[in-house]
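The instructor's notes for this session suggest beginning with a concrete chain rather than abstract definitions. Hand out the sequence below and ask the class to guess, before any prediction is shown, which regions might be ordered.
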Amino acid sequence: MAGFVQDSGMLRWLVVAGFVMAAVIVVGRLAAVRPVGGGEVLAGNGFRVDQESDAAHLLMCLVMLAMLVFPATADPRALRGVLTAMIVVYAAVLMGRILRWRSVSVATFAYHLLAAGAMLYAMSGHAEPGMRMHMAGGPAPAPMLALAALFTVDAVVMAVPASRRALWHVFPHAVGTGSKAVFPHLVMDLGTAYMLVLAAAG
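After discussion, reveal the predicted structure:
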């Protein structure tokens, strides 16, 4: 995948810029919240914020940035280790939410778990730097393209204000009337789809 990332030129850096902007928005959102009890917080505009979900967004942005900015030097073993740890943590948080049935939707962390799992699957066919990247027994292109299509459809749904408002009970940030509220989710959708397509091509 490293060669395809490096050859994608301007598109690669547009995706990088998107992840940077998403990370800045999430950090700002985390810094501007106030507790309201029950594990929930409100942003300055009064909308409900899921701090755990924002932290997951931030971690995914950082991992994606490492893969895009340093495609040839990022250690695949380290990236797989980080993604595996993230999946374990996300699964534990998701299970805790299911058991407690918190008012913050469980679907939010199911989404993060799927994104991290998709990236780990895409990385499963990568060897060490300097060696042949795509190995026999690696991820099949068809499932990765199917996942890329799924994330793209989700991005389209979240980009349309009417459908976004209809999903307010699924994704808390969907209630934001402006595009800034949902921008990190859109970046995660499109960035994950982009990386999956590159992995399938590689």
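Then share the key points. Confidence is low (pLDDT under 50) at residues 38-46, 127-136. The chain has eight helices and three strands.
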